[in-house]
Amino acid sequence: MIEERAFWLAWSQIPGIGPILQRRLQQHFGTLSVAWEANAKALGQVEGFGRQIIDTVVRERSRFAPEMFLKEHSVKNPCFWTPADREYPRLLLEIPSPPPVLYYRGIVQVEENLGITPTVAIVGTRDPSDYGKFSTRHFSIALAKQGFTIVSGMAEGIDTEAHRACLETGGRTIAVLGTGVDIIYPPRNQKLYEQILQQGLVLSEYPSGTKPNRAHFPSRNRIIAGLSRAVLVMEAPSRSGALITARLANEFCRDVYTLPARWNDYKSTGCLGLLSKGAQLIINEGLLVEMLSGMPPVDTGSIADLPLFSQQVTSENRQPLPKLEPQFHKILEAIASEPTALDLIVQQTGFSAAEVLSSLLQLELMGLVSQLPGMRYQRCSA
Question: Is the dihedral of CA 356, 357, 358, 363 positive or negative?
Answer without folding.
Answer: positive
